[in-house]
Amino acid sequence: MLTGDVRIDAEQRGNLRSEEATIDFKDNRMASAVATGHPAQFEQNKSVNGAPARGHADLIRYDVAAGTVTLTEDAWLSDGRNELSGPQIVYNINRQAVEAQSARAGAHGGRVHITIIPAASPARKAKP
């Protein structure tokens, strides 16, 4: 286990920052990482709209083979324009796709919140 100001750079896929992390290796390569903090943070250098994808949660699991980052417990993710928050968010790094899940019955804060900001249309930009 790594503790302190932990930073894990995963080449082109992004980076994790946290207070603590555990990394599993297979064939001398990182297979997975679990980062915990208040909050642990994730960033991917490029998202669909060109801005970095950023997220934070109390627990972040990175599965290299699946190409997914799972943010759990007070999870939040943004692609630089749109925002998503909820109990659990799964971000597919390769497809830059997101899946959010509400909490099970009886759990706290079970709603998923999405803020979508539409792109400005050319007609709106043209007004003096």
Keywords for this entry:
lipopolysaccharide transport protein A fold, 59% strand, globular, mainly beta, 128 residues, 1 helix, eight-stranded antiparallel beta sheet
Explain what the structure shows.
The structure is a single chain. With 128 residues, the protein is mainly beta. The chain has a single domain (2-126), classed as Lipopolysaccharide (LPS) transport protein A like domain (lipopolysaccharide transport protein A fold), CATH 2.60.450.10. It contains one helix and eight strands. The chain has one helix at residues 122-126, and strands spanning 2-9, 15-26, 29-44, 53-63, 68-78, 83-92, 97-101, 113-115. Strands 1, 2, 3, 4, 5, 6, 7 and 8 form an eight-stranded antiparallel sheet that branches. The protein starts with a strand and ends with a helix. The model has no long low-confidence stretch (mean pLDDT 83).
Care to give the gist of this entry?
With 128 residues, this protein is mainly β. The chain has a single domain (2-126), classed as lipopolysaccharide transport protein A fold, CATH 2.60.450.
Q: What count of domains describes the coordinates?
A: 1
Q: How is the quaternary structure best described?
A: single chain
Count the beta strands.
8
Task: Specify the CATH class.
Answer: Mainly Beta
Q: What about the largest sheet?
A: 8 strands, antiparallel
What would you call the structural class? mainly beta
What's the CATH H-level superfamily name?
Lipopolysaccharide (LPS) transport protein A like domain
Average predicted confidence as pLDDT: 83
